[in-house]
Each structure stands twice: as C-alpha cells, then as structure tokens.
Amino acid sequence: MEPRAVVKEKFFIVIRGKSRKGFCRGCIGRVETETQRGELTGLLYCGGSNALNPKSGGTVRKEDTYSLTRHQAQLLLFVSSVSKRLELLCNPQLFSAICELSQDDLVVVKHKKGHLPGLVKNLMQIGKKEHKDDLHMLGFEDSDQNLSSKKPPLCPCSVIPSYSVPLGLHWKDGQSGGLNRKAVTRFNSMPNIGSRARQTREKLTEQSTVQGQSPSASHVPLEVGSLVEVVSNSGVTVYGVIQWLGVPAGKTNEWAGIELDYDVSGCSDGKYGSQQYFTCKASRALFVPVTKCSPDSRFSCSSSGRGTSKPTDTLLVPLYEDPEEYAPPIPESEALSLLVGKMKGIQGHINSCYLDVTLFSLFSSSVTLDNICQTPADTERPITCTFREIVNRLRRQGFVPAQSVMNFRQQLGCDTFRTEEKDPEEFITVLFQKVLRMGPLIKLRSGQDTCQGAYTFQIFLEKGQMGQMPSVQQLLDTSCLSGDLKFEEVPSCLMVQMPRFGNKYRMFSHIIPSTELDITDLLYNSPRECFLCGHLAEFECLQCLPDRKMQPGRIKQFCSTCNTQVHSHPSRQAHSPRALPAPAASDTPVPRHTMQLFAVLCIQTSHYVSFLKYGPDPHSWLFFDCMADRHGDDQHGYNIPEIRACPELGDFLSQPEEEMARSHPSQTPELVRRLLCDSYMFLYQNPATPLSRSNHEEPFN
After folding, report:
1. Nearest CA to 280 among 336, 254, 241?
2. N or C: which end of the chain has fewer CB within 10 A?
3. Domain end: 141, 161, 179, which one?
4. Where would I find the H helices in 457-566?
5. Are 106 and 12 in the same domain?
6. Distance, CA of 275 to CA of 286 (rounded, Å)
C-alpha cells in the first residue's frame, strides 16, 4: 500500500510496544511518512552527544506513539535518560508547565543540596545545526552562566514551575525579599508561548479585587486536618496539612501550623519561637496567618458540585496500559521517591480496602511474585489486562486511581466484590485461582493422608496453648503440631492468617512479627535435628512445646536417646511423643529452610491497611492506607490514599523476639503499635524459589 507524504512537520515519542525496526520506548522521532495501515516511518533522534543528527529510524505503529510539538521534542531530547523522559511525560501537569515557561516565570531549580527558587530568563539552544534535519536540544541557562561558560545548561527535569509542584520556600511574614535566587534564561529568538504562572497570578489578583480579600484566602472553613496550600509573596506554592490552629505567642490573629508534604529549608519540627505547637519531621512545619491558607487546589471539587476532579483525568496519554508491557518491581532505591506521600498507592473506593492493600503488598516490589507479571496478559480475558494495567501503573507511576480498581472489581464476576466488605483471604483465592489461573500456593499433608492445597494458611489453636504475646513463628509451629500438619514442600509465598475473625474477635491482643520464618521442622518427610544434641531426630512431642524449661514455643524433636532422657522427668512422663518418618541417613548438617517477611495486612474498625518491606535494608518499611483522608462528602468526594515511610518499624523489629515481647505496645511509636495490635495476615516469601506459574498450574475447562 502506497504511503502518503506528510507535509506538516510532526514529531513523536514512542510510549509503548516492543522495540521494532529501529524505534524503542522513549525514542524521539520525526514523521517522514504515514501509511494507511496506521504506521509511521521517520527519522530517529538518539539523544546525547549525537542528539542533533538524526538517523533512519524505521517503522513504528502510530498507536504506540504520542505526538509532540517541535518545542516539546527539543526539550525532551535534552533529557538523556529514556525512563526520565517517560516519567516527565507521564506527569502532564508538570510537563505542560515546563513547556509553557516564559520570561520572568518563577521556578524551583533542583540541585544536589536541595531546591532553590529562580526566574526564567532564557532558554538555550544546544549544539550546532549543520543539516536541515538536525534538531537543537533545549536547556535552561543559569544566571551565573554566559555563552562562553563551561558550566552545562540545566536539564528541563531540574527546572520546576512553582505553581505545579509542591515545593516551596520558608514563609517570611509580610516580606518577599531575601530570596537566594538562581536564574535561568530564555533566548528571545525562541517562541514565547505565554506565561501560565503570570496568568494565574493575574487571575488571582482579579479575584481578590472582586472579593475584597487576599488571593490565597478562602471562604471554605479550615480545621485541623484540612489539606491546604500557601502562596508566598514571591509566588511560590507549598502544600500540607493543618496540624494546629490558634494564636501563637506574640501574635494577635489566628495562625495555622502546617505540616508540609516536603522538606523546606527554614521550616521547623512544629516549633514556633520557643513554643512547640505540634510535632513532625524537621524542616516540615510552617506557621502562617490562617488567611494565607487555601484549600489544596490539587484535590478541589468541581464548581458544579456534581463531580470531582480526579488527578488522573488529565493524563495526556495512556502510557502504561498496554497489556503486553512488563514493568519490573519497584527497586529499593526508588521506592521512597515514587511512593511516599498523599495520592500514592491505590485509591480506595466503596469498601475496597481489602483488595487495595492486598494488591499493593503482593505486587509493588516483591521479586518472588514477579514471574506472574512477566507472563503476557491474555488479551481474550479482559480481566488479565486490567490486572496488568493496575500493576504497571503502581510500579511506574506510584498511583492507581479508584476507577481502574473498580473496573477490576466489576470483572471479578460477583456483584459483592463491587460494593461489600470482604476479607483478604477471600480475594486472594479468587485472584490466584480465577484471575491468574494458578493452583494452590501451599501444599499441606495431614498425618499420612493425601496432600491438600490452599492459598493461605489459617492459624487454628486453643488460647491456653500460647502465652499472652506470641510470635508468628510460635503460632505457626503450634498450629501445625496441633493439627498434625506438615508442608509437602517449601512454598514460594506463604500467607499466614492470624487467629482472629474480622474486627470483632481476636485471640491475642498483640502478636510479635517474626521477620524470618523457619519451616525446616514443618516439612513432611524431611530430616530434622534433635532439639538437644543436634543428631538426626526420630521423635517429636506436642506436649513439650510450651515447656518453660526448654524454650517455650519451639518445636521439640529428639533423637532416641534424648527422647528417653527428656521423658523420664516426672512432669513429662505422661507425654505422648510421636515417631517421625525415617529419612535416609546422612552425615551432612540438616539445611535450614527459612522465609522472609515482606508485608503485613492489618485491620482496625473494619478497615484494612498494610505494611510493606520494600528492600533488604532493615529500615525499608512503608505504611499504606488507601483511605487515609477524604476530600468532599460521601456523594461527591473521593478518598485520598497515603503512603508513609516508617523506618522506626525496622528499629523495633531488629530486636530479638524476647525483647519485643517485653515491650508494651502503648510505649511504642504509633505505627509499631498498629502492627502489634492490628495484624491480620503476615506475608512471607522465599527469594531462593520465585513463584512460578508452571509449578502452580490450575486446570481449567
């Protein structure tokens, strides 16, 4: 089929699809021809030192590209990292704001040591154009630079319009001076697209003139817990949550103490003057007159009152919705920057917390479960594509809107999943069995009976069998021995459900998390060491489990000699030790089989939250709440999910279990207390044996 020539100059960036004929994701190209089959052929601009000089790029599907203006293409071309290009394009508000920057617009310049305010002056053309097809890159020039300076120009990724990103300056009461400004400059020869910042400030000024109040004032009542923004006299906007309202010492009018979303130089930890009004992280507390505060415009409802503005409604392109795409788990080095903050994680909606925390915990950063996501989605089953979309959005953008999850809930095949409260174990069974079409994750054997499968392990025992504050290891050991259960093999993923039923009943007020779960002595027909001498064990005894003279809570198995000696004691003569299967004799030490804790699901007042271990560092813990806050009423509002870093949890869990058991939960930090008191399900993984679909296939007709 004959291609038709493209007259008007067009640029594009490849946003998805596999690499084919020269083009790959993140590449920037210029359209040469477009076929009637919807394919583009064009020139490829590689970036880097050869960015100006194009080369033949080949063919790419039009649906896998996003159209760019020449100005946008030049700015993105200076971003050498392909992943950063796509990340910038995925933030439409920020990217549009950067493209629209004009002279004298206020920006924040990212430096290694922090963020400094600046003003747009010029935009630099980078490189020497020697051919008509060459394309200049565009970068911002620092005010300290001149054309002969060897200091490199600023990348568009490091220049942030102050009205689009929550970064700001220390508030100076009634003053705008004293700013340590870093200026960037734009060549007058470049197109002046218009100043969005200046238009915004003019609009605010007009509104304030009509309403007779300051631009940032608002008729909406503010209270402790309100999400607000503050615009300084210099035009820089900061965002945060009101933590205190009142009249501080030395003032006569009402002020607000705001905990900011980001660290800001010059801010405190909740202290103003000599008085501590509230407590937060250092460099997060800002004190301003309450008249300077406005409701956070990022989460504002529509003026009609009939709908809400959703953060994802303005996405320029569906960057990560291709079911053939694979997004790797979030690495430890990127988790904090990608995930921590408000409107992060999965947005809750209509009793979805059980599902949101389960998906977040299982698939955001776990490497063990990643093999599931590497298998291409079945395009004939839309639910697998929706599942892949959720996982990809979570891993690449750090946020999944409620609508994506609602689509998934509607496809689960049962109306109750859309509106009613559920428990995680019910969803886990449906997820692995019906959606992922995988067989049971764990295989259990009861006595000499045949093996049975399950997706989660429920702890069953009598309360009198355990102390007041047991560990997960003790609960698992006791439950298995009491029910005469053994694992047929070491599972790749083990989800252990605590002895509680929803929010109404829990057997233990506190449970100690075991960061490492040793299941060596719970494996069927596997060699085990004698508890006392270390030789090959031949007997195990359930009645010895709580024995306070022999490490209560630990499984007790003995060789023949030690079994006779232990049960000759008068207090143990009534015990009934059971003979173990006789494995093949071996002189080699018995290998230990352990699993690592990577997430905990908790419940409080019928609401599920989760803790996630996102890396090997002991302090790499996150707390996720899909409904941490809410904007608007029940009819027209929406939930605000939030993820918080909680390194204090790592400090607590680094202690020996005996030390943790002696700690009173009321004396521990808030999130540590929630973990101890509200734990519902502990998730463990075996990094040595990643979960494989081929080993857990479920037959379907």
Report:
1. 241
2. C
3. 141
4. 472-482, 560-566
5. yes
6. 13
**Domain membership of residue 547 as a residue range:** 527-590
Token pair for 96: 């549009």
Q: Pairing relation of β-strands 137-142 and 123-126?
A: antiparallel
Q: What is the DSSP letter of 139?
A: E
Residues 105 and 119 sit within 8 Å (Cβ to Cβ) = yes
Per-residue confidence (pLDDT) for residue 146, from 0 to 100: 41
CA atoms lying within 13 Å on the CB side of residue 336: 10
Give the model confidence (pLDDT) of 84-112 as tens digits: 787 777 766 677 777 777 665 656 666 65
Number of domains in the chain: 4
Say if residue 420 is in the same domain as residue 473.
yes
Structure tokens at 60: 């790419």
pTM of the model: 0.58
Q: Tens of pLDDT along 659-673?
A: 888 888 888 899 999
- Integer Cα distance of 639 and 351 in angstroms: 11
Residue from 115, 136, 567, 607 carrying the catalytic annotation: 607
User: Nearest 5°: phi and psi at 684?
Assistant: -120, 150
Same domain flag for 578 and 596: no
Active site residue 607: yes
Kindly report the three-state secondary structure assignment for every residue of 424-456.
Answer: HHHHHHHHHHHHCCECCCEEEEECCCCEEEECC
Catalytic residue among 27, 267, 353, 541: 353
Query: Do 1 and 136 lie in a common domain?
Result: yes
With residue 457 as reference, give the H or E element that holds it. Answer: strand 457-458
Note whether 499 and 395 are same-domain residues: yes
d(C-alpha 700, C-alpha 427), whole Å: 19
Active site residue 575: no
